[in-house]
Design goal:
CATH topology of the largest domain in chain A: GMP Synthetase, Chain A, domain 3
CATH superfamily of the largest domain in chain A: Fe-S cluster assembly (FSCA)
GO cellular component, one term (chain B): cytosol
InterPro entries (chain A): Fe-S_Maturation_MIP18, FSCA_dom_sf, MIP18-like, PaaD-like, Zn_ribbon_PaaD
Helix content of chain A: 10-25%
Protein name (chain A): Phenylacetate-CoA oxygenase subunit PaaJ
CATH superfamily of chain B: Ferritin, core subunit, four-helix bundle
CATH class of chain B: Mainly Alpha
Order of helices and strands of chain A: HEEEEHEHEEEE
Oligomer: heterodimer
Organism (chain B): Falsibacillus albus
Strand content of chain A: 25-35%
CATH topology of chain B: Ferritin
Number of domains of chain B: 1
Largest interface: A-B, 38 and 38 residues
Structural class of chain A: alpha/beta
Strand order of the largest sheet of chain B: 2-3
Strand content of chain B: under 5%
Number of domains of chain A: 2
CATH architecture of chain B: Up-down Bundle
Radius of gyration of chain B: 19 Å
Organism (chain A): Falsibacillus albus
């Protein structure tokens, strides 16, 4: 059993190095994309949750996971599969992930308010001001929106809240 | 030796859990496949017509937003084609690009051109028609997804949960355009009224479940067609009231019944254009 726990740990360390290709400060683990690691002897099956369905980065992330895990000497066969059995939601992003998004200039996703009017409030990732406006709900990638901070006069992006309550 | 590391997840009780299980029941599979072709082809052509606005949208913010929406929607179509691939219908890419118009199950509304001209030559596209088509279809799609979330086919139910979360933003986007243009004065409102009439003239086809309608609901794939239409009507009444219009009642199917494989020349044109690169090398990896 100990061998397997060691291998699991090594895989986790490798996955921590697999970053979002467009936000290279945040790992796929911190984004909450890892659902399951299954070990059968030295064979590895990794279940990954896609964020947005049309996201072109998904295939790149898959390829990067494969090559990262294959770097571990004792690993045998590796399979990476996208799964929808659990939907990815923006609350899966870890605390560390949220901090790293801010470092990159992207506000982490606000909590989705099912009672609200659908519009959400988000603080500026640079100066933390709440005096911000939504410029475009849709941004340069499927998961992001474009906002503007009226306090520090910076445009910035925010990750869209995604919830099963929508 | 096997050890699993789980990070949560919920188990719902469903009738049919996997593609293998669905394949064991030929009647169930037949209805399921028909439904999936409708869903896949609808989103595919909806996204394709939307993508033809790239660089032509009324302003740059809209260009960004509309592209993002089309990218999402194409992703939804890919998901449905993927489910068909699992059921032995062939490769998802071939299903999307290589099927002829007579085999397509999308509603005619989604194949219609955006306006006169082509993308490369004199594209005089109709923004009012686009706004109404996209808003009405997306409202319909959101309601349909609510029903599909409860589908007896678990992979479809899971796909619906996923797609529905993205759909939320699409509806929100088109609602703003729809209400603002419809409540504008003069030409704006008139053009919107014309567009509403045009879209309404095709919408019965969108609502139709096609020839296997009763089988679909009998197998619990989604709620029955009549109840769904009623539910949709209640919702659309509010949409019409939001722009001070009386709900026009029943809609029509003027240009054909896409669910029966009856399509317009607009679909031929779309297939011809969108498959051009694919046909150059069908084995290419993108």
């Amino acid at each position: 059993m100990e061998g397997i726990d060691v291998l699991h740990q090594k895989i986790m360390e490798k996955l921590q190095q697999v970053k979002d290709p467009e936000i290279d400060s945040v790992s796929m683990i911190e984004l909450g994309m890892l659902e399951r690691i299954e070990l059968t002897g030295n064979d590895v099956r990794i279940e990954v949750l896609p964020t947005f369905m049309g996201c072109p980065a998904l295939e790149i992330i898959k390829k990067n996971i494969l090559s990262a895990v294959k770097e571990i000497d004792e690993v045998g066969f590796v399979a990476v599969e996208f799964s929808y059995s659990v939907p990815w939601t923006s609350d899966r992003i870890s605390e560390a992930g949220r901090e790293k998004l801010k470092e990159f200039g992207i506000a982490p996703p606000p909590e989705y308010d099912a009672e609200g009017d659908g519009m959400w409030k988000v603080n500026c990732p640079y100066c933390a001001s709440a005096y911000t406006t939504m410029e475009n709900l849709f941004g340069p990638t499927a998961c992001r929106s474009i906002l503007y901070c009226k306090a520090c006069k910076n445009p910035f992006e925010a990750m869209k809240p995604i919830s099963t309550l929508m | 030796m096997k050890k699993k590391f789980c990070h949560g997840g919920s188990q719902k009780v469903k009738n049919i859990e996997t593609a293998e299980q669905a394949l064991q029941n030929p009647e169930y599979k037949k209805a399921l496949v028909e439904l999936l072709y409708q869903l896949a082809d609808d989103d595919f052509f909806h996204a394709y017509r939307g993508a033809e606005w790239l660089g032509l949208a009324p302003h740059i913010e809209e260009d960004v937003a509309f592209s993002s929406i089309n990218q999402d929607t194409m992703g939804h179509a890919a998901m449905y084609y993927g489910l068909l691939e699992e059921l032995g219908e062939g490769k998802a890419d071939d299903l999307a690009h290589a099927r002829k118009s007579v085999d397509r199950r999308n509603a005619v509304l989604n194949e219609l051109v955006n306006g006169s001209g082509t993308y490369l030559e004199e594209p005089r596209y109709d923004w009012a028609f686009t706004v109404v088509r996209h808003y009405f279809y997306d409202v319909y799609k959101k309601l349909k997804l609510e029903s599909l979330k409860l589908s007896s086919y678990r992979p479809l139910a899971e796909a619906a949960v996923k797609i529905n979360m993205e759909q939320y933003y699409h509806v929100m986007h088109w609602k703003v355009w729809f209400q603002q243009l419809s409540m504008s004065e003069g030409e704006g409102r008139n053009r919107m009224l014309d567009a509403i009439e045009k879209v309404w003239g095709e919408f019965a086809d969108v609502l139709s479940y096609g020839p296997l309608s009763s089988e679909m609901s009998r197998h619990g794939l989604l709620m029955d067609e009549e109840s769904f239409t009623e539910k949709w009507k209640v919702h659309m009444k509010q949409v019409f009231e939001s722009i001070d219009l009386t709900f026009p009642g029943g809609c029509a199917m003027k240009s054909g019944s896409g669910r029966q494989g009856i399509h317009t020349d607009d679909l031929e044109q779309a297939l011809d254009t969108l498959g051009e690169v694919y046909r150059l090398d069908t084995e290419a990896v993108w």
